[in-house]
Design a protein that fits this description.
It is found in: Cell membrane; Membrane. This protein is an alpha+beta fold and about 250 residues long. The chain has two domains: about 80 residues; about 130 residues. The chain is built from four helices and seven strands. It has a five-stranded mixed barrel. Strand 3 and strand 4 form a beta hairpin. The longest helix is centred in the N-terminal third of the chain and has 47 residues.
Length: about 250
């Protein structure tokens, strides 16, 4: 019985030490993630407000950490008659993003998110002739990144999947798209209803940064392990004292 009791104590001690160390490591990892997230937020804020730079070539590989939300510009022409409406929810309500292919001077294609229109509204065609579009570089949203899957055959889109949208129009496009900034004025727009003109500049740049809360949670649990160990040790000593006095 004493041998079994000793083994039980060692097992409990081992589990307690393992739990304590694991929780401390998880807390440290969350603090490291917080440092990384704060650095990312600072870099993105710098990109969003920087002067526009030429968008990457269509055949270049872009990455989320290094390129997303860079302020870029492209020159060329919109390709009319190939709009794609992607379901969206914005501060203006429920509706669609209007994704339009744009042919650059080097003949490469990049998809431009011209902006938002409400449900039941037909989007105005893009401006014709040579254009310069300034906006934020965004990463493609693969099918499956939202609750509902895209249905290219029925032209129903729930994510801005660049590859699939380009393929639907028999085009080869850059792996990213550009959220256009708001720049059109009443004088430059075609004479159509204002509601038909996509509202650009609605990109929401947000980053969830709850790493400090998670770190404190893990450290709190580690502290509870220490408290539990103290209680067990105290009760063990009381039990020994009671057994010796009886």
């Amino acid at each position: 019985m004493q041998k079994r009791s000793a083994l039980s104590k060692w097992a409990i001690t081992g589990v307690g030490l393992f739990s304590f160390v694991s929780l401390i490591l998880l807390g440290n990892w969350q603090l490291d993630r917080r440092i990384w997230k704060l650095d990312l937020i600072e870099r993105v804020e710098t990109r969003v407000h920087a002067s526009p730079e030429t968008a990457p070539a269509a055949d270049l590989v872009v990455s989320k950490d290094a390129d997303e939300y860079r302020r870029v510009s492209v020159t060329g022409n919109f390709i009319g008659g190939k709009d794609t409406l992607v379901v969206a929810a914005t501060e203006l309500g429920s509706g669609y993003w209007v994704m339009t292919p744009f042919q650059r001077a080097d003949q490469s294609i990049v998809l431009i998110n011209r902006g938002f229109i409400n449900q039941g509204v037909q989007a105005a065609p893009p401006l014709t002739g040579p254009q310069q579009v300034v906006g934020l570089l965004r990463m493609t949203e693969p099918d499956g990144s939202v609750v509902r899957a895209n249905d290219p055959a029925l032209d129903r889109w729930y994510s801005r999947d660049v590859g699939a949208i380009a393929a639907r129009h028999e085009l080869t496009a850059a792996s990213y798209f550009i959220d256009a900034e708001k720049r059109e004025t009443a004088q430059t727009r075609p004479p159509l209803e204002a509601s038909q003109h996509p509202v650009a500049g609605l990109t929401v740049v947000t980053f969830y940064n709850s790493h400090l809360v998670y770190a404190l949670t893990w450290y709190g649990l580690a502290f509870m392990v220490i408290i539990a160990a103290v209680i067990v040790i105290r009760e063990e000593r009381k039990s020994k004292l009671n057994s010796q006095s009886s």
